[in-house]
Design brief:
Elements: E1 4-9, H1 12-15, H2 32-43, E2 47-52, H3 61-72, E3 76-80, H4 86-99, E4 104-108, H5 110-114, H6 116-121, E5 127-129, H7 134-142, E6 152-154, H8 161-164, E7 203-206, E8 209-210, E9 229-230, H9 233-245, E10 250-253, H10 262-274, E11 280-287, H11 294-302, E12 305-313, H12 317-322, H13 329-341, E13 345-352, H14 359-372, E14 376-381, H15 389-396, H16 424-439, H17 442-455, H18 458-469, H19 472-477
Parallel strand pairs: 1-2, 1-3, 3-4, 4-5, 7-10, 10-11, 11-12, 12-13, 13-14
Antiparallel strand pairs: 5-6, 8-9
Helix pairs in contact: 2-7, 3-4, 9-10, 10-11, 14-16, 17-18
């Protein structure tokens, strides 16, 4: 039995936003994935510590990793990483191994789940976990025969072609049976979000559901899969009460699509109201325009929800259809009207460079964003992440230019692939044009000035404006 487990969040988990147009609205929350892993290990009787390297200077994290390993003396070190953070995660493993090769290092998260064998071959990690890790880490902690653990893979898989073809995910635990996240391992005072995406700091996370039934080809479903599971309202209330006791005054919902089962979503809102939770909240990770109605929005508003995010993606119906979004532009317009009438702010998410994209369709997206007129808007250039249908399509067509994973930054896309009809110069031009045209409109500026004065956040919003249009020069120097 492993007695001591040290879990790391990579330092660049926040700095990956540094050159994005939304760098001034970076959400700073405790990492829920590692809180869940820690909760499982604690149930198993392990002594667990989480080190959030995203809170420290990116140039100092190596020394901190070594110091923590030397002082805590763990039996196991675990790291979670997206594709962009894979190399940094490997550096954490390497530093750990430099202290003692006897320490077991384990990688989880989207990249490991998408490319498990490649992740093992390109890193010093002993094991990778494919899929949800709560049960797997318990088995790892109590069992030295890792080959018998479903969804857990070691170095012997790198060169074994037959084994490599049998990759399976971990077993899925019924969602209400999951451990409670060990959020007490974080210090709540460190998690202060910009006022443009928060109302009451500090801000804590909650996961109310898992899985996404949609078929968007740009989205990775390798961790939680396509089967939607939502927690009971009783379980959600229990977690919110714990968050409040830990000192958090607001919560952000991390779910892919909370309103997939809209009746359950309404029930949860009703229970938040009935239990008088008294916390503001942000549904920032998104709701679909075809899975929302007035009753839900009214309940969410009464329950304390002040802002939602919506993946509109494109103003071109042809582009939406090509990526399997499964929505119509008319639905997007109706949803925007409903949310506005409910008195809830909404953030519109858009993508440029989708398959079939042209300069004309990118103009349509910019015009559509202006027509929808969300409170805030964010555009990104498409990144074909491993584990997505778009990545597989691009790789099959020979369009992938590099597998330098550090360049797969959703918030600052590099020339990682060859678009079928657009140069990167044009993609970057329209990325900048999107934000200029949306945010520098007289109507938006007047509206935002009035709201900033009323809400007492004029200085904060001026800083956001500076970061959006001028701060990139400082970010590039750093």
């Amino acid at each position: 039995m492993m007695k001591k487990c040290l879990l790391f969040i990579p330092s660049s988990a926040l700095s990956v936003y540094s050159r994005s147009k939304v760098r001034a609205a970076i959400p700073k929350l405790p990492n829920m994935s590692l809180a869940m892993i820690a909760g499982s290990l604690i149930e198993e009787g392990a002594d667990v510590k989480i080190v959030d390297l995203a809170l420290v200077d990116v140039n100092e994290y190596r020394e901190i990793v070594k110091k923590e390993v030397l002082q805590f003396k763990p039996d196991m070190v675990g790291v979670t990483a997206t594709t962009t953070l894979f190399y940094e995660a490997d550096q954490i493993s390497g530093i750990t191994k430099s202290v003692s090769t006897d320490i077991l290092t384990v990688l989880g998260g989207p990249h490991a789940s998408s490319l498990p064998i490649e992740s093992l071959g390109e890193s010093s990690f002993d094991l990778v976990v494919v899929g949800e890790g709560e049960k797997a880490v318990k088995d790892i902690a109590r069992n030295n025969d890792f080959k018998e653990i479903k969804g857990v893979y070691g170095k012997e898989y790198i060169d074994n072609k037959n084994l490599s073809l049998e990759i399976k995910s971990t077993d899925v635990i019924p969602i209400d049976d999951l451990p409670f996240p060990a959020l007490s391992l974080y210090d709540s005072k460190h998690y202060v979000c910009p006022r443009v995406i928060s109302r009451n700091n500090p801000v804590g996370p909650i996961e109310m559901s898992r899985g996404c039934v949609s078929n968007c080809s740009f989205c990775n479903k390798k961790v939680h899969g396509r089967i939607f599971r939502i927690k009971s309202s009783k379980r959600v209330i229990e977690e919110l009460i714990i968050l409040k006791k830990l000192g958090y005054r607001e919560f952000h919902v991390l779910d892919d699509q909370f309103t997939t089962n809209i009746d359950k979503a309404k029930e949860i809102c009703q229970e938040i109201i009935r239990n008088d939770i008294g916390m503001s909240w942000n549904l920032r990770t998104g709701i679909r325009v075809d899975r929302v109605d007035k009753e839900f929005l009214d309940l969410a508003k009464r329950a304390g929800c002040y802002q939602v995010g919506i993946g509109f993606e494109s103003g071109s119906q042809a582009c939406l259809d090509k990526v399997g979004k499964g929505i119509k532009l008319e639905q997007a317009i109706r949803a925007a009207e409903m949310i506005r009438s409910a008195g809830i702010e909404f953030v519109g998410f858009f993508m440029l460079g989708l398959p079939g994209e042209t300069e004309e369709t990118m103009k349509e997206t910019i015009n559509f964003a202006i027509k929808l007129n969300p409170d805030y808007a964010k555009a990104t250039i498409l990144v074909p992440f491993p584990g997505t249908a778009i990545y597989d399509e691009f790789e099959k067509k020979g369009l992938i230019r590099t597998k330098d994973w550090s360049k797969y930054n959703f918030h600052n896309a590099d020339e990682i692939y060859q678009h079928s009809s657009l140069s990167w110069n044009r993609l970057n031009y329209y990325y900048n044009l999107f934000h200029r045209r949306f945010y520098l409109r007289p109507g938006f500026l007047i509206r935002e000035l009035g709201r900033s004065i009323i809400q007492g956040r004029l200085f904060d919003d001026l800083c956001v404006g500076y970061q959006t249009f001028l701060g990139h020069k400082n970010a590039e120097k750093k």
